[in-house]
Amino acid sequence: MSASSGADFAQIRYEVDGPMATVILDRPQARNAFTLRMSDEIVAALRMAESDPAVRVVILTGAGRDFCVGADLSSGSFDMGGDGAGEPGWQEPAGRVSSTIYSLRLPVIAAMTGVAVGAGSTMVLPCDLRVASTDSRFGFVFGRRGISPEGGSPWFLPRLVGLAVASDWMITGRVIGADEALAKGLVHHLHQPADVVDAARILAADIAENTSAVSVAIIRRMLWHASQAPTPDALHAAESRLIAELPGNSDAIEGVQSFLARRAPVFPNTLAADYPSWLDQLR
Asked: Is 182 exposed, middle or buried (0-12, 13-18, 19+ CB in 10 A)?
């Protein structure tokens, strides 16, 4: 695994290994407590991954025992404003991360161990897969800190676990154990702490080796659109437009040919050249 150059990161690490980019929260001495700088560095790393044609999947994880214990409160208060706080167009830090993941054209896998509360729970909600450890704990603890939710969590969480469960977790602000998180659909898989990142890498390798980058980006956009659209009409129209283009779609041709030949596919299309940007209007 090699670290990518071109960015001066202080609170995260960014590493690329073949088709996998790994964004690592790197304040283990502070249990990866979330800061304004960390937020901006995560966003920058995600955009670096998206602009790298070799990268197919992003893994978001944390160094040390815990994924992220939420906002850094070592100063005795919430210090997440920064320049321009409250001005038009300003976005709070956890929301910067979650909205970037939401709009990304690459799939993102969260690999979490230990505590993931506050921003540690909200920033991973738009990830495509969430892998956690058997000792993981989650919490939307905002009411217990006298603050409002962040990271778009009141929008994302009910779409993952349902409104009743989201209401329970957010209104009580209680901490949720790994088994409950798995049972309610917040996480997809549980593993022993030492195995979490390896499990995420296995999932990432499967996606990178067996799927089309453009198809996966299209699927990501359609899934999020379908979760909020009042009817499937716009989705049907988009699907029809895409299906009509299949005879000239190089990835579709390769998908059929590789299936018939019983070999691994080698999809030629790229996100830069072949992603149908008009799909972003479905957001």
From this structure: middle
